[in-house]
């Protein structure tokens, strides 16, 4: 699997701009893909991928036998687009896999990022916040993907890097999926958590270690919200971003997560493994 091409992202940004400017109005039906691809001077596959991106972000909606329509931003309640890869892996399975892969990659990458890598993370997080506040969802997700990709590329384990790259489409789509249902206060938490990740990485780069060591990772909040049975695991709207900031602090190993069970059966969450330095000492955002 490969991440979307620059052409696809450019088409998504252009269509988003047409929606935000009012050129494409709320509830308006888009022209057919053949007509629209001619208008935008792009291939139909690139247009199709761009429309799928916008649908995941909640900007358009495709109705069978009716076409693709601009979503009314004033409509009550967000509606998540169908998970595109359900025939291969469920969304909870992707979240579970991320909880195992990403914290370890971040732990390994910590000594190797250096000042340039940390500066790139700062820039990505600044763009992440600015795009959200400006309503530019395409740029917002691009900045988020750049943030996580910067960490992954600094990981010295070549096998983990290749594994991460091989499932990039799945990982990226799981980061877009929660956007339509993300409230402002939840996103503020996510932005703050990105900042906490950078602070923890700066500490590791500077040689400071936590009492428990850097290898203990906190399970991501979205995984603690998983509910349902094995074959058809249903997830409540997950936290929009992985909570990596605790990789250099306390918390259980990703291979031995506390809290909600990973086999689809309800279990006691147990005590929150987040450090008590989290806001108001109330544990991680998943436990509040």
What does this structure look like?
The chain has 288 residues and is mainly α. It folds into two domains: 6-70, Orthogonal Bundle (Arc Repressor Mutant, subunit A); 91-281, GntR ligand-binding domain-like (Four Helix Bundle (Hemerythrin (Met), subunit A), Up-down Bundle). The protein has helices spanning 6-21, 33-40, 44-56, 91-109, 114-133, 137-154, 158-166, 168-176, 184-205; strands at residues 60-63, 67-70, 226-227, 234-235. Helix 1 packs across helix 3 (44-56) and helix 5 (114-133) packs antiparallel against helix 9 (184-205). Mean pLDDT is 75; it is low at 208-243 and 245-288.
Q: Order of strands in the sheet with the most strands?
A: 1-2
Termini separation comes to 36 Å
The CATH C-level name of the largest domain is Mainly Alpha
Which radius of gyration do the C-alpha atoms yield? Answer: 19 Å
Proportion of residues in β-strands: under 5%
DSSP summary, beta strand count:
4
Average pLDDT metric: 75
* Anisotropy-based shape: globular
User: What is the N-to-C succession of helices and strands?
Assistant: HHHEEHHHHHHEE
| Count of the domains | 2
Annotated CATH topology of the largest domain: Four Helix Bundle (Hemerythrin (Met), subunit A)
Low-confidence stretches: 208-243, 245-288
So how many helices? 9
* CATH-scheme architecture of the largest domain: Up-down Bundle
User: Considering the protein shown, what is the CATH homologous superfamily of the largest domain?
Assistant: GntR ligand-binding domain-like
Structural class: mainly alpha
* Largest pleated sheet: 2 strands, antiparallel
């Amino acid at each position: 699997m490969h991440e979307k091409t620059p052409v696809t992202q450019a088409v998504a940004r252009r269509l988003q701009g047409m929606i935000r400017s009012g050129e494409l109005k709320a509830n308006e039906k888009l022209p057919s893909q053949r007509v629209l691809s001619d208008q935008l001077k792009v291939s139909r596959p690139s247009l199709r991928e761009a429309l799928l991106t916008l649908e995941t972000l909640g900007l358009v909606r495709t109705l069978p036998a009716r076409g693709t329509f601009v979503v009314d931003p004033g409509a009550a309640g967000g509606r998540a687009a169908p998970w595109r890869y359900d025939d291969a892996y469920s969304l909870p399975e992707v979240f579970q896999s991320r909880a195992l892969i990403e914290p370890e990659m971040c732990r390994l990458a910590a000594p190797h990022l250096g000042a340039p890598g940390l500066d790139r993370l700062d820039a990505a997080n600044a763009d992440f916040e600015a795009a959200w506040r400006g309503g530019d969802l395409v740029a917002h997700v691009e900045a988020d993907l750049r943030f996580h990709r910067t960490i992954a590329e600094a990981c010295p384990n070549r096998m983990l890097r290749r594994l991460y790259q091989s499932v990039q489409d799945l990982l990226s789509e799981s980061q877009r999926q929660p956007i339509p249902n993300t409230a402002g206060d939840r996103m503020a938490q996510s932005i703050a958590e990105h900042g906490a990740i950078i602070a923890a990485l700066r500490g590791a780069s500077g040689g400071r270690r936590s009492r428990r060591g850097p290898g203990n990772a906190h399970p991501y909040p979205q995984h603690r919200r998983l509910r349902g049975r094995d074959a058809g695991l249903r997830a409540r709207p997950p936290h929009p971003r992985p909570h990596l900031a605790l990789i250099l602090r306390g918390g259980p190993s990703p291979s031995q997560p506390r809290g909600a069970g990973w086999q689809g059966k309800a279990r006691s969450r147990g005590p929150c493994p987040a450090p008590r330095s989290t806001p108001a000492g109330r544990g991680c955002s998943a436990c509040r």
